[in-house]
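Can anyone check this?
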Amino acid sequence: MNSNKEQTSLFRRKPIAESEDKGLKRVLGALDLTTLGVGAIIGTGIFVLTGVAAAKYAGPGLVLSFLLAGIICAFAALCYSEFASTVPASGSAYTYSYTAFGEVIAWILGWDLILEYGFASAAVASGWSGYFQSLLSGFGLELPHALTSAFSPEKGTYFDVIASAITLIIAFLLTRGVKEAARANGIMVAIKLIVVLIFIGVGVFYVQPENWHPFLPFGMAGVTTGAATVFFAYIGFDAVSTAAEEVKRPQRDLPIGIIASLAICTVLYIIVSLILTGIVPYQMLNVSDPVAFAFEFVNLNGLAWIVSLGAITGITTVLLVMMYGQSRLLYSMSRDGLLSPVFSKISGKGQTPAKGTWIASIIIAVFAGFIPLGDLAELTNIGTLFAFAVVSLGIIVLRRNHPNLKKGFRVPLVPWIPIISALGCVYLMTRLAPLTWIVFFIWLFVGLLIYFAYGRNHSLLNPNRKNR
């Protein structure tokens, strides 16, 4: 008897009718969502990860790595689109799993995404700092060495003041209102797309086909490991679905925004990786700024400076969307009673969760300033892949439990596409390092302790919940 009550408590599901909230302003359209997705997807992937993945894992076969990751993402995007149009609420995979699997799985997904968004934001802020300082050096300006990088006494650095500062600036922009943030994001997306197109248009004339031989220096194993590594570059469309409660027509616009942003970025990734490895021998691409380095390699230093500026703009949009997704995830979990109510308090003219945004942003700023986070891409990837797999399987459960539910978008060939999506994500997870799995499980274990200590007792679905 008690075990049955326990099961009901742990796997209680949120009714779909309760998933929508009226606290946030509906101001975003399909174009806003598409630029939001492009803003998150194009940035670190093109401007940083392409070089490392080519040099260490895939060689010129990096184009196949992006194609493989893009295909798996496409299947997952179809599943996200159905959920987004069916459950038009903030929270992304967390909210979807709450309606499909129940509370404890939703908590695991939410806690997983807190890791993904939070540490990805800190890592991106650190990358932004590196590009910005490189740009400053071109003008003969330099910060005190102690403030140029994360805590590393042997190198004489103690705090990355630029990484911390850009995090707080983005937080200020987000608290001003989502429409204002989306407008700024749209301008920056346009700038970085122009820069990417300049690289493609100019770089194609400097391609040396012999650099593509051997095309698979590390074999297909290198291609799949490369796909698992560059998966970090695709996490932006997940952030699009967190905007559900601020979309004018979520049933129509969310699927358009998710699928369009993914399609645009996949094509650009493939073209850029092909040109990049055609200009520079893949062995030389293990640098922090591979796209700018490619122009320097062929003595186009002026264009290299423009690319660096575009990279700064591109990484800014990634940081903006990642922090936006983090704040909306915390908002949703708090509104459901699983986290402190401070994260769901709406305030200001912009009608945003300002206090929660500032709390999360200050923590991210501290991490970005003190901790070197260059190796956290794999940890972010395993969290993302795990979320995508659960969401994909959730479509099968949703169809079984709600066969007559009205939807704006439906995944074709169910259950096969969701199953292929989940298997593809799990396969890429197996290509990640064992240490990544260990840290991931430790993070989930800590999250479960917090759930049983606080979230379960304060959940709005708990009839005996404690007052918050």
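Reply from J.R.: I decoded it. The chain has 17 helices and no strands.
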